[in-house]
Amino acid sequence: MNCRHCDSPLHHVFADLGHCPASNSMLTALQLEEPEVSYPLKIYVCDNCFLVQVGEVKKAVEIFGDQYTYFSSYSSSWLQHARRYVDMMMDRFGYGADSLVIEAASNDGYLLQYFQQRGVPVLGIDPTANTARMAADRGVDTLVDFFTSHLARELVARGQQADLLIGNNVLAHVPDINDFVSGMQLVLKPGGVVTMEFPHLLNLVRQCQFDTIYHEHFSYLSLTVVNRIFSAQGLAIFDVEELPTHGGSLRIYARHAADPGKPVSQAVVELLARERQEGMGELAYYQDFQPRVNTVRQEFLEFLLEQKRLGRRVAGYGAAAKGNTLLNYCGIQGTDLLAFVADASPHKQGKFLPGSHIPVVHPEQIREEQPDYVVILPWNLRDEVAERLAYINEWGGQFVVAIPQLEIFSHVAEPAAYVRI
């Protein structure tokens, strides 16, 4: 395999998580009786441009199909995040009725609805028909398609160019990252702005967030690498923010390279320097990750086996993709160690997790069965989940997260604040 950005041969493995099914491929009861396809989940780092990337074995068109089960609007904290973003962008750039906001991977309209409520025309683009239907129910015009340079040319031919082009947690999801960024450059108006949010590779490495590795995530990104990819396609990053979302993300602001009106901020300069100081431009930085992953697996399995020996009951919350990576890498099968996983999304309830085949149930089952421990699989939402399920304290229940290290707790931590570099 060659690098998706610079086409150099890939020789160096960053992490090998074995074989597992696609992380959002939930199963029905009937499908439990059928063969289940697993794919290698091996991540490489390019020794030329340092893009960290998965070996593509499952095509994007198969992953992001009509049965895709991730709906953004089922997270209240994510909706709050989207609303704050819209308020900030309206204040900073002054969009109005003569503007056009386009979002790639717009999901169920969770974000564009807030621009629309403020009288700004919007267009969503998403390849998953079921999420697009929910967006349409909100009145958010959505194209069911992948965002590519080909689609960008079609939009330009129709006279649709973006004053603001948004991509939240999509840049890592595209198999052809060069084509995707090329499309952004094409569809962006001369004075337009691109904002992209993506998990920061620096945090993935620091906090051993290996469960954010799955087949949907083709790339794992630093500012240094994204800056290089954007520059190659005629775009320039002029500002950056660090966010607490998804365990630590970046929000980048980009413009056409020829746009003189938006100077590069000190924040960009400082973060690029910090990544250099951390060693992200050297191969050695990426070579001690696997042993730390194995330690997390060992500690989590020891916890589950100890509770089994003691006769205590453990359940999970959040049928998230990251949880499936963790459970499958740990080799957990069936309900012996984890009785069930509760989730607020009706699109997941009544189904079974891929690989582990653990049933997904309504959250009320936690109250009914009163487990001793609830493992919060989407640890990035630990505060939201712990607050929602605070009633488990009534019977002495406790929460558990496995990453970055095993932690058992019964309180809600103070919410993380936005950090400006």
SSE blueprint:
Layout: E1 12-20, E2 39-45, E3 52-54, H1 60-63, H2 76-93, E4 101-104, H3 112-117, E5 122-126, H4 129-137, E6 142-144, H5 149-157, E7 162-168, H6 177-187, E8 188-199, H7 201-206, E9 219-220, H8 223-232, E10 235-243, E11 249-256, H9 266-278, H10 289-309, E12 314-317, H11 321-329, E13 341-342, E14 360-361, H12 364-369, E15 373-376, H13 382-388, E16 398-401, E17 407-409
Helix pairs in contact: 5-6
Describe this structure in words.
A hairpin with a 6-residue loop joins strand 2 and strand 3. The chain is globular, with a radius of gyration of 21 Å. The longest helix is centred in the last third of the chain and has 21 residues. It is 31% helix and 21% strand. With 421 residues, it is of the alpha/beta class. It is built from 13 helices and 17 strands. The C terminus is likely disordered. It has a seven-stranded mixed sheet with strand order 6-5-4-7-8-11-10, with helices on both faces.
State the strand order across the main sheet.
6-5-4-7-8-11-10
Oligomer description? single chain
Average pLDDT, all residues: 92
Class per helix and strand makeup: alpha/beta
CA distance, first residue to last residue: 36 Å
Task: Summarize the helix and strand pattern as letters.
Answer: EEEHHEHEHEHEHEHEHEEHHEHEEHEHEE
Number of DSSP strand runs:
17
| Percent of sequence in beta strands | 15-25%
* Spans of at least 5 consecutive residues with low confidence: 413-421
Q: Please give the share of residues in helix.
A: 25-40%
Rough outline = globular
User: Please, how many helices?
Assistant: 13
Rg, rounded, reads: 21 Å
Instruction: Please outline the major beta sheet.
Output: 7 strands, mixed
